[in-house]
Amino acid sequence: MTEVSTDSPTRPDVAPPPGADPVAWAAEHRSEIRELVAVHGSVLVRGLELDGRERAAATVAAVLGEGGMAEREGFAPRDAHGPTGVYSSSHWPADQPMCMHHELSYAARAPRLLAFACVTPPASGGVTALADARAVLADLPAELVERFEREGWRLTRHYNPFVGIGWQDAFGGADRDEVERYCAENGVETHWDADGGLRTAQTRPAVVAHPETGERCWFNQIAFLNEWTMAPEVREFLTAEFGPEGLPFNTFYGDGTPLDRATVDLVNEVYERHTVREPWRRGDLLVVDNVRTAHSREPYRGEREIVVGLGEPFRP
Which Gene3D superfamilies does UniProt cross-reference here (predicted)? Predict the structure, then answer.
């Protein structure tokens, strides 16, 4: 495996031999890829022959090994691509950003490892950008971090038939009793609407110790899933249609106090100061430590297909 120099301060690029079978190469070098991720927080493999969705999904599965993790509580629909833990990227409007976040950081079980394989790069934009969660934590105001460490952060969700993802897709089934059992076991409060919609709330840690190194990492979706990060026209429409408590998701301080726009903007500004961007190329394989490294998806034009893998579940 050849390591290539890169302009990124956080991550090396790796080049496989020309013509290498991507699935076999990924399986053979799985441990080396993970070692690089452990050191740098992410690694980009550039130049694999990912000539379709099936090959990309198999390559992602090879990186995950036996550690694939089924998604629960997703905030946007995905398509499953066969092996456990392998999906399409989230179906999110192309013209709307997915701000910096850590995958499933609001759930009781989250993946430690993410893998992204590029089948079709967009005509423009669509970068999966990265940010070092340790640097973000160090750069946030101490008093803000102290409050979130003391209280955690609270997420409310409204699963309804009209907007966002339905609870049946989010929880992987239509059995209400099973959903309530899952929620009770994982610290999620539930309330059923008369029309069959589901409202949930959960409080999670905003800062966690990395499972291997013990380093403190900013690990949440406080800014991304907050009302102030929505496009103003989207927020205004949803609030008018469903009321302030009917938004598909919103975030708060752990005691339930609303976040103001200035605080949410501040978190996103700190993320931006530590963001590293690399445009997608066909055949790219990006492997990320989901605890140490936040990621985002920027708006794009044209077709874009990225296969995503979730692996190595842990409890934050």
Answer: Clavaminate synthase-like
